[in-house]
Amino acid sequence: MPAPNAQVTIAITNFKGGVGKSLLTHLLAAEFAAQGHRAQIFDTDPQQSTTRWYVLSKQRGYKLDDIAVFSASGTLEPDQPSVDKGATLELSSTTLKARLADLPPCDVLLIDVGGYWSEEAVLLYSLCDAILIPVVNEATSATQAIEVGKVLQNIARATGRTIPYRAIFNSVTHINQNSMAMMETLAELKAAKFPIAKPFLTVRDWYARVGAGYGTLYEWQEAIRNDATLRPWQKKRMMQPIEAAIDGVKVINNEVVAMLEQSI
Ligand SMILES: Nc1ncnc2c1ncn2[C@@H]1O[C@H](COP(=O)(O)OP(=O)(O)OP(=O)(O)O)[C@@H](O)[C@H]1O
Ligand SMILES: [Mg+2]
Hints:
The chain is 47% helix and 14% strand. It is an alpha/beta fold. The chain has a single domain (6-263), classed as 3-Layer(aba) Sandwich (Rossmann fold), CATH 3.40.50.300. Strands 3-2-4-1-5-6 form a six-stranded parallel sheet, sandwiched between helices. Helix 2 (49-59) links the parallel strand 2 and strand 3.
């Protein structure tokens, strides 16, 4: 069953918390939008971190023109921000289906799926054309990724439709890649024959800035380009790390597109 009104649907998920799901959702939405697609994010995490990112970014004057964000719980409205509400909201499959049906048409629907296993997570996965599962250098993130994989295999058995999914490492350059934790994480994924994306998300200040509610990398790039107070050499120096950060997202985006082609 495809998502109503969306050309393609991609979930970013892991039952393990704090692995970069929301950040990767924001970065990919901006990249799809930069490529001319109508990108939309459906924030189904009761913590509403993606909605918070959107609301804070708007308050701070970022336009986010090409990205629409909808909260499944509907408690944070971008035009009437109130970031304190909604943290405890429970979602039912019925509410979720109703909200999904209400979403306007888009090319790419990215779903930030928060929380542990739930009927709602299963429902959302079953709508997807591809699923990205961020993992960090901690074995629990692999264990939980494998749990997501099991759900996806059950969906494939029940529906006859195989949804491509891959784990994607986040923060790998930040840590010693030969550390015990890293080896354990990799060993777990390999033992489960878990598909792993080639690119990984590196740790970057620019990603942290975006994640903290400061718009998109593209808006920063635009702002520097148009800043008349900066000399060309200053612009160049400021642009370099942003371009590198954008390139890092582009390779992940390419991987997602390859997964989508696999699902056709
Ligand atoms: N590669 C990275 N570079 C810089 N900052 C990062 C990176 N990955 C994650 N972060 C930051 O780490 C924090 C946790 O990431 P994020 O909120 O995206 O994780 P999550 O999996 O969505 O967490 P939750 O389970 O709470 O929803 C955020 O502040 C985010 O901006
Ligand atoms: Mg999150």
